[in-house]
Amino acid sequence: MIETVPTPAGDARIHWHPAPRARLVLALGHGAGGGIEARDLRALAAALPAHGVTVALVEQPWRVAGKKVAPAPKTLDAAWTALWPALRKPGPPVVAGGRSAGARVACRTAAGLGAVAVLALSFPLHPPGKPEKSRADELLGAAGAGLPTLVVQGAKDPFGRPEEFPSGTHLVPVPHGDHGFAVPKKADVGQEEALAGITAAVAEWLDGIGG
Fold first, then answer.
1. CA 78, 26, 121 angle in degrees (round to 5)?
2. How many whole angstroms separate alpha carbon 177 and alpha carbon 68?
3. Most buried among 34, 52, 60, 82, using CB within 10 Å?
4. Domain extents in the chain
5. Domain 2-208: which CATH class?
6. Segments in 6-72 forming alpha helices (H)
């Protein structure tokens, strides 16, 4: 089911993947370089409803409008905040999440919106080649607010490799994975195996989230 939700930045779209008896809703926003067709978002939407988790893939207004460039963070946050009531409407507690820029939005807004946890896929800890421009404060802000926070990060992600994250970060590394969790054909882990590892790790983590 696709739901259109008006926001100050234009219409957003929520693609619902409902669980039969949901105990949680996992809201996932996309990155700045792509949409909800990302391999990890699709894999989670397909796998998690069987675990009692309804997945809501959220298209930000700039993508719905067909634009190529994401707007400023404050605009992304405003749209996410405006559509949050629609995510809460089904009833179960909501876990805020997303990939890349969508993970940053989730981290920045989760505490204020009443999310019960945060899932950060491919968190862009810094621009490629510029580790001094760290965004760790956004990630630590969610965890510091007492929200369980899981980071799933490719071992070869140029936006931040697992070992670069602050100590104490709850992080699941994806062997050989890049920023999009693609793995080389020569790797000892296949693409489907890598995605299965991501969905299994997220499902296990969500089992521990109150719902």
1. 80
2. 25
3. 60
4. 2-208
5. alpha beta
6. 39-47, 61-64
The tokens describing 186, both together, are 């020569």
Side chain identity, residue 139: L
Query: 149, 143 in Cβ contact below 8 A?
Result: yes
pLDDT mean over 107-130: 95
Give all strands of the β-sheet with 171-174 in edge-to-edge order. Answer: 2-7, 10-17, 53-59, 24-29, 94-99, 117-121, 149-154, 171-174
Name the residue among 106, 124, 107 with its Cα closest to residue 165.
124
Q: What is the pLDDT of residues 137-179, one digit of tens each?
A: 998 888 777 899 999 999 999 999 999 999 889 999 999 999 9
pLDDT per residue as tens digits for the range 37-91? 999 999 999 999 999 999 999 999 999 998 988 989 999 999 999 999 999 999 9
For residues 94 and 16, what is the distance between their CA atoms, to the nearest angstrom?
Answer: 13
- Break the chain down into helix, strand, coil percent, rounded to 5: 35, 25, 40
| Token pair 């699941």 in the structure block, residue | 172
Strands 2-7 and 10-17: antiparallel
Q: What are phi and psi of 62, to 5 degrees?
A: -65, -35
Task: Find, among 101, 109, 118, 115, the residue nearest to 63 by Cα.
Answer: 101
Q: What is the pLDDT of residue 211?
A: 53
Distance from C-alpha of 17 to C-alpha of 116, rounded to nearest angstrom? 19
pTM: 0.94
